[in-house]
Amino acid sequence: MKFSRLIVQVLLVIAVVTSIVLSFFIWTNTARYQRGRNIDVTTTESDKNKIPIDQVMSPTQVIWQNGTSQHLIYNSEENISMSMQKVMKDWNIGEPKKLFSKDGARYQKTIQQSNAVQLVYPTNISVKTLGYLLDNSTLRRSSDYSFNRIIFTVNNKNDKYVYLANDKNYAVYRARVKDALSKPILKLARKANINLAVRLNLMKHGVFTFYTEPVKLRTYSYVMSEKKDSEFTTSLFDSDSNDLVTSKDDDIYTYNYGETKRLISDHTKGELSFYDYTDTSVPKDRLAFFQRGYNKAISLQNSVSNLRLYDADWDDKELTYREYVEGFPIFKKSQFGSIKIKFSRNGTTESFLNKILEVPVPSEQSATTLKSTTSILKGLEKAGYSPNDIQDIQAGYQWESESDNEDVIDLTPTYYIKINGHWKAYVDWTNDTAEEE
């Protein structure tokens, strides 16, 4: 008993001494302790506020053929296209197999099949990327086909497949699916409070969504915030501001960090271009391409919740992002959208704007009614443009500053047309209004 009591007393003495030593290190080194703790908190908050990749890379259109006609649907209170993509995470989707390609007649039949829902991405993504977004290991191991439409039938128990369709080469891939219930999809579809009659037409440059009747869209106004150059130099250069060499030519400011990094800011246009000559690795596959582009885009505008991947050019290694309002893209006074990322062996280039939409405010403008797409094409023909000249045509929102308050941006519905690689509003191509008279 005495021996046991001695052991206990010795252990207690060791515990007390250890506690005192540890306390001494903590008390005399609080800076290190606090710094480590803050890093953990900062990382957690950053991840919490980070826009998830499956939101940035989500469909922007839902087309539902419920009977004999097709309708573009959306809900002004809930992003049903993104919600439908999330529903697919519960599906057991198998490996896609090619059904056909370069067959326009068969392709048109596929995208116009009855009792089907289509999730439409603004640009081609890939099978492995979809597997990453849906956390589907089978898709991540599959052949990496490109596509921009996901099509599945509802109320048809005999069709147990999901179809992936590519508007560029009229290719369709089919994957068997299990555990896919149509009820959650139909529930989301029936939530739509906007229902626009459309027709999918094949033209020279791909599939165009035609609005068969005049389109009535709301106008919006937002308070805009404008970032200073210093906010970008701090995050992009990750170095002491004393190391930056600044020069000015009229309203164009250039910031150089040695020969490795450069930021050019055009104060007149509000456009910036960042060149990182140290980042010379080019993504080897499409998934890495999308992941790296996403990381760069949200590091520039991590608070923009309505930012979407708009265009992906795998050959030129370019990614373009735009902001969206209720499924419709916002076209600003730049040729690259909101953000453009380009990878090359000579380094990466990031083009972006310093203006961000922050808070919606009541709009004094009434809703706008746009002409049908057929009427728009007739107007373009009258102005001298052949249907074969038109690379794309979309209903969207035009970014305009209010004359009496530059901090408020009006988003006005109109048609935007792409010809010779340039997006312009319909009025700029034709000198005519896109609005229904």
Automatic annotation (TrEMBL):
Ranges where the Regulatory protein YycH domain occurs: 10-425
Keywords assigned by UniProt, alphabetized: Membrane, Transmembrane, Transmembrane helix
A Pfam family the protein falls into: YycH
Gene3D superfamilies tied to this protein: 3.10.450.310
Transmembrane portions of the chain: 6-27
Signal peptide extent: none
Domain of life: Bacteria
InterPro entries: YycH
Protein name per UniProt: Regulatory protein YycH domain-containing protein
Native species: Companilactobacillus allii
